[in-house]
Automatic annotation (TrEMBL):
Domain Carbohydrate kinase PfkB stretches: 14-294
Pfam families noted in UniProt: PfkB
GO CC terms in record: cytosol
Residue stretches spanning the membrane: none
Keywords: Kinase, Transferase
Name the UniProt record assigns to this protein: Carbohydrate kinase family protein
Organism of this sequence: Actinomadura barringtoniae
GO biological process, one term: phosphate-containing compound metabolic process
Molecular function per GO: kinase activity
Signal peptide positions (record): none
InterPro entries noted in UniProt: PfkB_dom, Ribo/fructo_kinase, Ribokinase-like
């Protein structure tokens, strides 16, 4: 069954290594520049496809050259982009990321057409027919915060569709607004900063428990180099990170989601699916961009041996 990714679609342009922005019109030579499909829906969609899933992506992009590039990249990697709508009056969302030598990633970002996503672009039948639906960045695609969309999610869950959710931003008002989606998802996968921000706590375990009380079956919080934690009503499990040489952390959260969803689609239990997510994130961290180094599921799982 297909996985539907719904939400944020971004074109990322990345360069590494960048130690500083040059003065005036100076030029600095770098080792690598890449353009990738990114964002909590598009980036996850590409990673899911590379891990062997059938993927349909739904969202809004501009009727511009960046949109053409995004469609071409996603299609090249096997993602069905028939769910993307083209907006004439809005540009495709894009980010420029100068990656520091230590893997840090400051950014310059245009939200673009992502802000125009509403429930009207979503076919409820597509959600019901899917094996899983991943909400990628509903904190930014806040037009989905709509009773009609929540009804569609509930109908999909009743039919057996698994609903997962990840966030995009670190803006307090947007992150807190995404709490409205929690009663309608099965698995919520924020990073530590987002989880603490949503709950007003300083402890990720306490944050996970508070988020769990809002309705999800499980909350999985990614903790960077400290791995992740998986919280259910049965307790909290710590999943250690995999030590790798980090080049760029862009898209590691999307890769974690893709690996986790792939585990669920392969009937793995929650802890094992989280380990698949950990391995996918570790793979992506070793290269530049949100799908770096992903060549297939077998190579990812080899990191767990």
């Amino acid at each position: 069954m297909a996985v539907v990714t719904l939400g944020v679609h971004i074109v990322d342009v990345l360069a590494r290594p960048v130690e500083a922005i040059p003065q005036g019109q100076d030029t600095v030579l770098v080792d690598q520049i890449r353009m990738t499909a990114a964002g909590s829906a598009a980036g996850t969609a590409v990673d899911l496809a590379k891990l062997g899933n059938e993927v349909i992506s739904v969202g809004a992009i501009g009727d511009d050259e960046l949109g053409d590039l995004l469609v071409a990249v996603m299609t090249r990697h096997g993602v069905d982009v028939s769910g993307l709508v083209r907006r004439t009056g809005d540009q495709t969302s894009a980010t420029i990321l100068p990656i520091r030598p230590d893997g840090g990633r400051p950014s310059f970002h245009v939200p673009g057409a992502n802000l125009t996503v509403t429930a009207s672009i979503v076919d409820p039948g597509l959600l019901t027919a899917a094996g899983a639906v991943h909400l990628g960045g509903p904190d930014v695609t806040f037009g989905l915060n709509d009773p009609a969309f929540f009804d569609a999610l509930e109908a999909a869950r009743a039919s057996g569709t698994v609903v997962t959710m990840d966030l995009l931003s670190n803006m307090p008002d947007l992150v807190k607004g995404a709490a409205a989606f929690l009663p309608h998802v099965d698995y919520f996968l924020p990073n530590e900063e987002q989880a603490l921000m949503m709950t007003g706590t300083g402890d990720p375990v306490l944050a996970a428990r508070k988020l769990l009380a809002e309705g999800p079956r499980a909350v999985l919080i990614t903790l960077g180099e400290h791995g992740s934690l998986v919280a259910t009503t049965d307790g909290v499990e710590r999943i250690p990170a995999i030590e790798v040489d980090v080049v760029d952390t862009t898209g590691c959260g999307d890769a974690y989601c893709a690996g986790f969803i792939t585990g669920l689609m392969n009937d793995r239990d929650l802890g094992e699916a989280a380990r698949w997510g950990t391995a996918a994130a570790a793979t992506v961290a070793q290269g530049l961009g949100s799908d770096a180094c992903l060549t297939g599921l077998d190579a990812v799982l080899a990191l767990l041996d």
